[in-house]
């Protein structure tokens, strides 16, 4: 099940790494995060190599919905309450700055970038949305409260945010590869210090950036403990009027929508991979109820890494480390997140101070309760007796009949029916017998 993006643009191709090379920075992973990081480092005069296991843009980035918004899953009013005004302001400013950078690059890259407002609505709680508008305004964004939306049903209220955008992620990504030293079909097997070891050759680097979606080295950083994955389900329909904005329901089990040319994209049904419930039924029922005239023409699932405080992990891979860096945990906002991550790491790797470095530090303290809860989820499936087992940490996998895959409820790795790997953190396939 492919997204509408891969069908509407031809990918560039890059050679495999066949012999050893030396560079300033080896960036591992050729998704939005890795490519933007390499591009920004190159702008600062550093020589980078991007090492991609498969094809550039073939991972999570290929199946995104590519909205450039300032709205994460946590409403700003809640973030101010939980993490303080300073943290919320830093994040919002970083998101707005990231959107500005996308817009500047898009002037040279035809990628259908359109500036249009973003709406976050509530079906039943007008006060909540008024509080969100007040929070956004206190943080410096000129948000407004409205009940007037292009949705075919009434809402209690919505926060309307100006200056946000949507684009074609692969057209943009491929444009950004221009001038970069990229190796495809070049999987990094391990790191020896700052040397990336691949199947055929080695990349000797002064610094390493791991941008592999879920970090692939388990030994450091405890990412398998302080992160999980969330899978979401998107349908593309034809025959609905363009929305003129991007839309998100604030409810945890709500949908999100955007138009893309002739398509209306409806996403939702979020769940941890390997868990029961939700899935494609949610966007499909929404379409049937509110857009009965529109015809579903495509459907796909995709997943992103979620951190325990809904802020990404960007910075040294492990506490005190100075040579290996990571960007991950974008929580469904990894377009803007990738640009923010690339800017933060471009500063860190060139010895400049970045205002957000501390906020996104992967070694920041986590509250014990969410850590225990997340660990507990994994332990349940680690102790379960089912087969097959995940090649990452041995958790019991569950069959996903909708997508015909074996999914890991602990950390989100996924495998085809024949055992071939689809999604990391697992790095190799499994033995299956059904
Ligand atoms: C349904 C859905 C909708 C979304 N919509 C939005 C949205 O509207 N706006 C938004 O901002 N964000 C959105 N996101 C989030 C966003 O799509 C992701 O956060 C982002 O694409 C992640 O990019 P990435 O570069 O980190 O990962 P990827 O694109 O997966 O790139 C990682 C790359 O690393 C490679 N790799 C892995 N291991 C190795 C290795 N050992 N050696 C070499 N290469 C390796 C992989 O092959 C892959 O190409 C959405 C996410 C989902 C699930």
In short:
With 434 residues, the chain is α+β, with helices and mostly antiparallel strands.
Please give the alpha-carbon distance between the first and last residues: 22 Å
Total E-strand runs? 23
Structural class: alpha+beta
> What is the CATH T-level topology of the domain at 6-64 and 170-225 and 310-360?
FAD/NAD(P)-binding domain
Task: Describe the largest sheet.
Answer: 8 strands, mixed
Q: Helical content, roughly? A: 25-40%
CATH superfamily of the domain at 6-64 and 170-225 and 310-360: FAD/NAD(P)-binding domain
Give the class-level CATH name of the domain at 6-64 and 170-225 and 310-360. Answer: Alpha Beta
Bound molecules: flavin-adenine dinucleotide
Based on the structure given, which CATH architecture of the domain at 6-64 and 170-225 and 310-360 is correct?
3-Layer(bba) Sandwich
Shape: globular
Unreliable runs? none
Beta-strand level of the residues, as a percent range?
Answer: 25-35%
Radius of gyration over C-alpha positions, nearest whole angstrom = 21 Å
How is this structure best described in words?
The protein has helices at residues 32-43, 76-83, 85-106, 126-138, 169-176, 281-290, 334-349, 357-360, 368-383; strands spanning 21-28, 48-51, 67-68, 114-115, 118-122, 144-146, 157-161, 165-166, 181-183, 188-192, 195-198, 202-210, 227-238, 246-249, 256-260, 263-271, 295-307, 313-316, 324-328, 398-400, 405-407, 414-416, 421-423. The protein is of the alpha+beta class. Among the domains are: 6-64 and 170-225 and 310-360, FAD/NAD(P)-binding domain; 368-423, Rieske [2Fe-2S] iron-sulphur domain (Rieske Iron-sulfur Protein), CATH 2.102.10. The strands form four sheets. Strands 1, 2, 9, 10, 11, 12, 18 and 19 form an eight-stranded mixed β-sheet that branches. The protein has an eight-stranded mixed β-sheet with strand order 6-7-5-14-15-16-13-17, with helices on both faces. Strands 20-21-22-23 form a four-stranded antiparallel β-sheet, with no helix packed on it. A hairpin with a 6-residue loop joins strand 14 (246-249) and strand 15 (256-260). Helix 2 crosses helix 4 (126-138) and helix 3 (85-106) packs across helix 7. It starts with 20 loop residues before the first strand and ends in an 11-residue tail after the last strand. The mean pLDDT is 95. The protein binds flavin-adenine dinucleotide. Flavin-adenine dinucleotide binds at residues 28-34, 51-54, 58-61, 64-67, 187-188, 211-213, 216, 232, 234, 267, 302-304, 330, 332-338, 424. Flavin-adenine dinucleotide binds next to helix 1, strand 13, strand 17 and helix 7.
